[in-house]
Amino acid sequence: MTQDELKTLVGLAALRYVVPGEVVGVGTGSTVNKFIDALAAMKNQIAGAVSSSQASTARLQALGIPVFDAAAVPELSVYIDGADEIDHQGYMIKGGGAALTREKIIAAQSRQFVCIVDASKLVQTLGAFALPVEVIPMAVARLLRQFAALGGQARLRLKDGVPLLTDNGQQMLDVSGLQISDPLAFESTVSQWPGVVTVGVFAYQKANVCLLGTTSGVKTMTF
After folding, report:
1. Which tens digit of pLDDT belongs to each residue from 21-68?
2. Into how many domains does the chain fold?
3. Which DSSP symbol is given to 19?
């Protein structure tokens, strides 16, 4: 099966975690797009969605699914999103789509986090994928030096030759060369650095369930 077919497979499988009559949390990315497309088939059975990005909001609304502001929904039964990496404990690296801050906020207000990925995203130790970090622009130069002190190589994410701006109006760093053996400690430490908005390690808001697309079907991992 192609990677695109595996994404379609897990997107469909995630429908069984959607609670009828409630608002569902929806993430961002190519795999989540498959879930959104599948969700359209049961749009009349849910109250709507809370979305982690402008791109996902536009896709949901185009399919006739109401989108609510996160602040208007005190708690979500489930948040469904992809990941750039996930380990065997449910810890993740996220933020390849630059929506990590909103993703972490929605994950925190959800009772269950269901991660949907293809098998290529499962790793033993986080760090092969460059770590996304949303930052305040005035702190960029100093944060580059702080990551270098940890052995990482940080670079400013560009789009069309200029710094990419997130939906929050901030900038993104991508940090390569890290081996994150203790995700909880790493997330806690980097989150305290002045100028860091959100670090793309999801340890405190880790996945409860991972639907892993494999050539032999969807494998369910629980944490």
Report:
1. 999 999 999 999 999 999 999 999 999 999 999 999 999 999 999 999
2. 2
3. P
- Domain identity same for 111 and 210: yes
22 assigned to active site: no
Asked if 32 and 80 touch (Cβ cutoff 8 Å), the reply is: yes
Are 8 and 109 contained in the same domain? Answer: yes
Residue 114, domain extent: 3-122+204-222
CA distances from 208 to 119, 133, 137, 152, 180 (A): 17, 23, 33, 29, 20
Query: What are phi and psi for residue 91, nearest 5 degrees?
Result: -75, 145
| Residues 174/132, Cβ–Cβ less than 8 Å | yes
Assessment of whether the complete model's pTM goes beyond 0.70: yes
CB 111 within 8 A of CB 164: no
CATH no. for residue 21? 3.40.50.1360
The 10s digit of each residue's pLDDT in 148-201 is 999 999 999 999 999 999 999 999 999 999 999 999 999 999 999 999 999 999
Annotated active-site residue in 5, 22, 103, 187: 103
* Residue 174 contacts residue 162 (beta carbons within 8 Å): no
The DSSP output letter for 181 is S
